């Protein structure tokens, strides 16, 4: 079953995206929808592109801080590989941007692949924390359906439990290493032991209080910019519940990333926005218009910066696609 899913993930994602896009645009007022895209509103795209560029810079700053363990790294390099990761997420069949950017950076700079990937995973953990904060804000402000409340509670609980497990493992790292060392004659166990050693080495030598505060601060800025980009659009389109609709749409969009989808999340994004606007009693047509205004600048930024970074780092789009498959099959197996 798993093999079938992996083999047909793109086609399954395309079906899901098409179905959700149909449900999202079904029964919208086409004339009203087109009215939102008149020339007088086109400047919204420019404003959101500027916000997304700032957002990309802060995301690169945060990852660069996580890569401080590698003295030879610099912000320009981090920015390029951040752009390559977003390009891969938006334009390649599988959303493997974090794996691809980590794999390419580690390969080119001869860094530990496990430690670079660990830095990318920590990024995602902080993003999940930011999403959890938004969800808690939503709980305090909106009448959210029970099934969504249950899903959000499960999500936050899993994040909390996983964090506790990681902290406990880190505290007992020497004992874990000793236990695994006793059975290290098995190749698989030895492989796992080396992986855990590399991850713990990264955590021990990097995640200090000062760095954690920096990560918290940059994550807060990142999520503010996410919400602010949505606020700009909704404020122009409806001037009604602008912050609220932006927050809710981000929550639904964040949760929707578990679904298979086409590159760029087309369909899934539209449906998530319709759900968010529906909870607030807002117009469905506005929701679909908002989703495209939010999505188009992200794709524009990803194309422009992606091509620039791919060129400067000496890759090609075809090469990135090939490396995507290589990264999937290799699984970042080297321990340097």
| Count of beta strands | 0
Residue runs with pLDDT of under 50 for 5 or more positions: 331-336
Distance between the termini: 34 Å
Mean pLDDT over all positions:
80
The percentage helix is: over 70%
Number of domains: 1
- The coarse silhouette is globular
Structural class: mainly alpha
Order of helices and strands: HHHHHHHHHHHHHHH
Strand content: under 5%
Count of helix runs:
15
Strand count, sense and barrel status of the largest sheet are: none
Compute the gyration radius: what is it?
A: 21 Å
Structure in words:
The protein has 336 residues and is an all-alpha fold. The protein has one domain (24-330). It is 79% helix and 0% strand. The protein is built from 15 helices and no strands. The protein has helices at 2-7, 9-25, 30-35, 43-66, 75-91, 97-109, 113-141, 146-171, 173-182, 187-206, 209-237, 242-256, 268-279, 284-312, 317-330. Helix 5 crosses helix 14 (284-312). It is globular, with a radius of gyration of 21 Å. 34% of the residues are buried. Mean pLDDT is 80; it is low at 331-336.
Task: Give a brief outline of the structure.
The protein has 336 residues and is mainly α. It is built from 15 helices and no strands.
């Amino acid at each position: 079953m798993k093999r079938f899913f992996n083999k047909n993930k793109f086609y399954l994602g395309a079906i899901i995206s098409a179905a959700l896009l149909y449900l999202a645009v079904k029964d919208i007022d086409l004339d009203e929808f087109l009215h939102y895209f008149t020339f007088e509103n086109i400047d919204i795209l420019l404003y959101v592109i500027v916000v997304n560029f700032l957002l990309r810079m802060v995301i690169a700053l945060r990852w660069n801080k996580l890569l401080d363990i590698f003295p030879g790294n610099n912000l320009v390099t981090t920015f390029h590989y951040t752009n390559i990761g977003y390009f891969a997420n938006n334009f390649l069949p599988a959303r493997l941007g974090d794996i691809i950017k980590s794999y390419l950076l580690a390969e080119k700079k001869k860094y530990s692949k496990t430690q670079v990937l660990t830095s990318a995973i920590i990024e995602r953990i902080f993003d999940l924390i930011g999403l959890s904060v938004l969800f808690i804000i939503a709980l305090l402000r909106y009448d959210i359906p029970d099934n969504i409340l249950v899903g959000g509670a499960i999500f936050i609980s899993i994040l909390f439990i996983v964090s506790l497990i990681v902290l406990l493992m880190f505290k007992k790292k020497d004992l874990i290493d000793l236990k695994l060392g006793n059975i290290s004659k098995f190749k698989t166990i030895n492989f796992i032991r080396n992986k855990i050693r590399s991850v713990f080495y990264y955590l021990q030598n990097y995640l200090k209080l000062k760095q954690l505060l920096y990560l918290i601060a940059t994550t807060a800025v990142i999520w503010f910019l996410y919400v602010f980009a949505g606020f700009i659009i909704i404020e122009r389109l409806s001037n009604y519940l602008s912050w609220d609709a932006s927050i809710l749409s981000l929550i639904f969009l964040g949760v929707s990333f578990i679904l298979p989808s086409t590159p760029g999340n087309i369909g899934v994004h539209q449906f998530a926005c319709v759900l968010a606007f529906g909870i607030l009693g807002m117009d469905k047509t506005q929701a679909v218009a908002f989703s495209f205004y939010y999505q188009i600048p992200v794709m524009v930024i990803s194309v422009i910066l992606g091509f620039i970074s791919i060129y400067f780092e000496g890759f090609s789009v075809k090469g990135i696609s090939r490396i995507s498959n290589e990264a999937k099959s290799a699984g970042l197996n080297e321990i340097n």
